[in-house]
Amino acid sequence: MTGRSTAGVVRDLDPGVFAFVMATGIVSFAASVLRLTVVSAALFVLASAGYVLLLAASAWRFARWRGHFLADAVSPRGFALLTFVAASAVLAGRFALAGAAGVWAVLLALGALGWLVLGYGIPLGLIADPGRRRRRWGLDLVDGTWFLWVVGVQSLAVAALEESRAPAALTAGALVCWAIGLVLYLLLAALGLARLLTRPVTPAELTAPYWVFMGAGAISVLAGARLLAFPEPARLVPHALVAGVSLLLWSFCTWLIPLLVALGVWRHRGGGVPLRYDGELWSMVFPVGMHAVATGQLGHATATGWLVALGRGEAWAALAVWTLVFLGMVRAWGVDRAGKGARPGRSAGAGSGDAGARRTWGRG
Length: 364
Fold this sequence. Notes:
Elements: H1 6-11, H2 19-33, H3 37-64, H4 66-73, H5 83-97, H6 101-128, H7 133-137, H8 148-162, H9 168-198, H10 212-227, H11 239-270, H12 282-302, H13 305-337, H14 355-361
Helix pairs in contact: 2-3, 2-5, 2-12, 2-13, 3-4, 3-5, 5-6, 5-8, 6-8, 8-9, 8-10, 9-10, 10-11, 10-12, 11-12, 12-13, 13-14
Region (Disordered): 339-364
Organism: Amycolatopsis cynarae
Family: Belongs to the tellurite-resistance/dicarboxylate transporter (TDT) family.
C-alpha cells in the first residue's frame, strides 16, 4: 500500500483492522431497513470479502510474527483486537438475515471463541503488566478502544438472537452476554469519563475510536431490543425491565452524540488537526450505523412509531457517512500506491507498524 512488501504490511497490521468489516456489515443492515436491497447486498459482499482477506492476513501474522501480535495484545491498544469478535458477530447476523444458518453458526462460534480468548487474555495481560507500564500511564492508557470489550460481548448477544430457530439455551446465553455487557459498559463509562474530565487531553488524542463510547451503548440497546422478541428471557428477567434499561441506554448514548460532534469540531477547528481520511474513521462509522439500527429496532420492539421513523432517518445518515469514508479510503489507497502522502509510524503501544495499512483499513 505504500510501496512496502506484502509481508511487511501483514507483519505490522493494525490490531483493530476489522473495524472496516464491522462498519460495513452494520451499514448493510441499515440499508436493508431502507429496503435498498442492492445496496445492502453489495455492502454485505464487501464486508464478507474484507473479512476473509483480513482473517487470512491476521492468521499469517500470528503464525509468522507472533511476537508482534502478542505485543499488540498487551499494549494500550490491545482491546482493538476485539474488532475481530464484533466483525465475526456482525457478519453472522447478516448471514442469518440472508438465511444461511450454517455460516451464521460458524461465524458465531468463531466470534465466541475470540471473545473468550481476547476478552480474558487482554485484561489479564494488562493486569500482569510485565513491563510495569501501567503504573506510568494510569488513566492515560484508557481510550475509546476499551469499549470494544463491551461491543464484543454484546455483538455475540445480537448475533445469537438473529436466528429465529436458535435453541432456548442460546437465547439464555444471549441474555447473559447482554447482562455482562451492561456491567462492563457502566464500569468503562466511569473510567472513560474520568480519563476525559480529570486528565489532560490534547486534540490529537480525541481520535475517532472515542465514538465507540456511544456505539457500545447503542449495541447494548440493540441486544435488548432483540431480547424483547423472545419469550424465554421473561422467565429470568421481565420484559418491562429489559425495555426500560434499553430506553435508558438509548437516551444516554443519544445524548453523547452532540458531545462527540462538538469534541470533533474542537479537535479539527480549535486544535488544528487536519480533517482528512484516516482508517480510525471506521470506528466512527460503526457507532453511527449501530445507533441507527438500534433506534429502529427498539422502536419496533416497543411499538414506538417515532423511534422507528428516527431510525430510518439515521440509516440514511449512516449510509452517507459510510460512503464518504469509503471514498476517502479509496483515494488514500490510490495515493499510497502511487508512493505519495505516506505517514510513518503507528500509535503508541501498537509497535512500529505501517501507516499505509493503518490508514487504509482502520483500527478499532
